[in-house]
Specification:
Number of domains: 2
Strand order of the largest sheet: 6-7-8
Structural class: alpha/beta
Shape: globular
Helix content: 25-40%
CATH superfamily of the largest domain: Glucose Oxidase, domain 3
CATH class of the largest domain: Alpha Beta
Oligomer: single chain
CATH architecture of the largest domain: 2-Layer Sandwich
Largest sheet: 3 strands, antiparallel
Number of strands: 11
Distance between the termini: 14 Å
Radius of gyration: 23 Å
Strand content: 5-15%
Length: about 325
């Protein structure tokens, strides 16, 4: 059984994730188009990646230490809401040695993922504002600057229970979602949409909401007593996750180096529990990317595991 955080906060999972900022290789995105999604290609999506970000280039000396020359400012956004950077405040010896070590092991020299290749060993960009050393995410990048708009209302602590349907359209054999039902403070409400309803509840909650509303596989919904409004056997299927494996090791530290194990010291841990602010640090995690060396994994194996895993989420909800 695997526990997944669900991002139940203003800003969703962008408020709690690792803050890693990357982009798939050209082939990965073009595969979406090959499945019938004509506008979801690498080239068609790239302008929107740039539009969403403000890329902060490192000073030359720091850039060399990070081996961050692979990042091409010409391919990056300059005025988007999400701040993207590598830490200017501190750099670990791992971050300095990692790119050269991977190159010496025979892996290709990395290019900026915006070029279409996300392969190689490199220090990963983070969604962090270097001016404040804070996370840049949906709430402070998109909602906060627009929170006073008259055409925007955000209701927190509300749980959407199902989508509602246009009865007239449904009677004519053209099912159309008209709004959503939700609960807040123990009371039930229904809100109607003038134009369209956008379902953006995350990897787990979006398919679950669609299914309880009657959109999904007939073989799954009917045994649960759910009236099938729109049959789509793809809803809730092919769930995939990228697992992270951490490596821990013990080494003899030279003078001037501090291990994270210092947090286990009772006096240090007590101090961290009492302070409300910490000294300005990186504001980021240092992540390092390495390409897969195994290309023989069968897609069928991934799909079967994904289906079984999602059923666990569905029936234990």
């Amino acid at each position: 059984m695997q526990s997944w955080a669900r991002g139940k906060a203003l800003g969703g999972s962008s408020a709690i994730n690792f803050g890693m900022y990357s982009q798939a290789s050209r082939k990965d995105l073009d595969n979406w188009a090959a499945l019938g999604n004509d506008q979801w290609t690498f080239d068609s999506l790239s302008p929107y990646y740039r539009k969403s970000e403000t890329f902060h280039k490192l000073p030359e000396g720091m850039e060399k230490r990070y081996a961050a020359e692979y990042l091409d400012p010409e391919l990056r956004g300059t005025d988007g809401p999400i701040q993207v950077s590598l830490s200017e405040n501190e750099i670990s010896w791992v971050a300095e040695l990692w790119p050269e070590t991977v190159k010496n092991a025979g892996y290709p020299v990395p290019k900026d993922p915006r070029s279409g290749s996300a392969v190689g060993g490199f220090n990963q960009l983070m969604t962090s504002d270097p001016a404040t050393a804070t996370r840049s995410y949906s709430a402070n990048a998109y909602w906060l600057p627009n929170k006073d708009r008259k055409n925007l209302d955000v209701l927190t602590d509300a749980f959407v229970t199902e989508l509602t349907w246009d009865e007239a359209a449904e009677s004519q054999g053209e099912p159309r979602v008209s709004g959503a039902a939700f609960e807040v403070d123990g009371k039930k409400y229904t809100v109607k949409a003038k134009k369209e309803v956008i379902v953006s509840c995350g990897t787990i909650q979006s398919p679950q909401l669609l299914e309880v509303s009657g959109i999904g596989s007939r073989g799954v919904l009917q045994p649960l007593g759910i009236d099938v409004k729109v049959e789509n056997p793809n809803i809730g299927e092919n769930l995939q996750d990228h697992l992270m494996v951490t490596l821990g090791f013990v080494s003899a530290l030279s003078d001037g180096f501090i291990s994270k194990s210092i947090i286990l010291t009772k006096s240090v841990f007590s101090m961290l529990q009492t302070v409300s602010t910490l000294p300005k640090s990186s504001g980021t995690l240092r992540l390092h990317k390495l390409p897969s060396s195994n290309t023989s994994l069968r897609r069928a194996d991934h799909s079967q595991h994904s289906r079984q895993q999602h059923r666990l989420f569905r029936y234990q909800h």
